Amino acid sequence: MSILSYDGGMSLRIALLGLLSFSGPASGYDLTKKFETSINHVWQAGHSQIYPELAKMAADGLITVEAEGARGRKIYTITREGRDELRHWLTEHTPPGPVRSEGALQAFLLPILDPPEALAVLRRTTEAVEAKLEHLQGLRAVKGSQAAGREEHKLGGYALDLGIRHALTTLAWARDTAAAIDPDADPGQGEPA
Amino acid sequence: MSILSYDGGMSLRIALLGLLSFSGPASGYDLTKKFETSINHVWQAGHSQIYPELAKMAADGLITVEAEGARGRKIYTITREGRDELRHWLTEHTPPGPVRSEGALQAFLLPILDPPEALAVLRRTTEAVEAKLEHLQGLRAVKGSQAAGREEHKLGGYALDLGIRHALTTLAWARDTAAAIDPDADPGQGEPA
DNA sequence: TTGCCCATGTAATACGTTACATGATTTC
DNA sequence: GAAATCATGTAACGTATTACATGGGCAA
After folding, report:
1. DSSP track, B93-114
2. Residue B13 has what pLDDT?
3. What is the pLDDT of residues B70-92, one digit of tens each?
4. Scanning A76, A119, B37, B128, which has its CA 20 to 30 A from the CA of A21?
5. Are B44 and A18 within 8 A, CB to CB?
6. Is A88 found in the same domain as A106?
């Protein structure tokens, strides 16, 4: 896992470097909070995964403990090597397409069910995606209301847009698929393709 | 991990049950091949994960070895319990939204890069997604050319549609995002929103 | 008889989740 | 002084990837 020859599976590291790069020095606790809020729809990690990873990253020279705050709070700062690693991953690493989605697996297996059951599954999917969509749009509203001059709201903005578009696409798919399974079913809104 | 109280993380099991349910009895080798081809864009697993899982599923009574073929080939058949488990997961389990996407993580961190680098990343993303799109459309063409009366081509058809729609959505996002970063950049095709 | 595909497994390692465990500081 | 939050860690377990290991059958 050297700085220049990377193979895969270090996304947690990259996410942490990204947050430290953008928001400045932070503790493991701070970063855990940011995982719960801002970056949550793109990558997840709990504190039990974050603390050991920070220790490894410090050992690898990607971050350093420049200061210690109250009650043992360790403040990590990204190093030059850390920034290089982050930039390298962003510019050189081509991610594998989105794989391993339980939702897509349900879509895949949908023909196993008979029409009434399949339609019920699609309704549940629609509800779940609508809830997610509202959540993401709420996040966007928060960003929009932040001080206009600040740059911070930009981090994650493109990913938010992408997530919203994907949610809308999934809703359209569910509507059209329900119509294909049963043309007489009430699509709720819109019209099938 | 009883049959009725399920929490999460048994998607591999479900995928195997789905394939066995739809295509009839098969060996671990057969199922590994199907993972490489048909179900690949939705869930992945190699033989080293599949063989032990089949053994556990047999121990749990979800499948049985009804026959043994040439050179130690074990033919698994889904049981009644297996079908129940599969149907239960499909109808009752609400999957968590698509999480942990390296592509979305790159989108999230894009503002860290300066415009020329960010645009280069978006171009690479576009190329990768176009390749994936072609692959999926190829799969759909194969399905379309199969005997019309057969049902088999239906398994996976809805997921294929969903995958293609998501790919198209990602392409549109990349185009619009590039235009937002640099309005003078050549978008290649189409016009920004 | 050499090489390729069929066919099945295990081992080592990494990644991720849940639960366990501890203690300091602030707030009511 | 009780409860909530701050703050950091480890342990146990499950899931996933890569590499290692073995042997049968068939075709050139």
Report:
1. --PPPP---HHHHHHHHGGGS-
2. 98
3. 777 999 999 999 999 999 999 99
4. B128
5. no
6. no
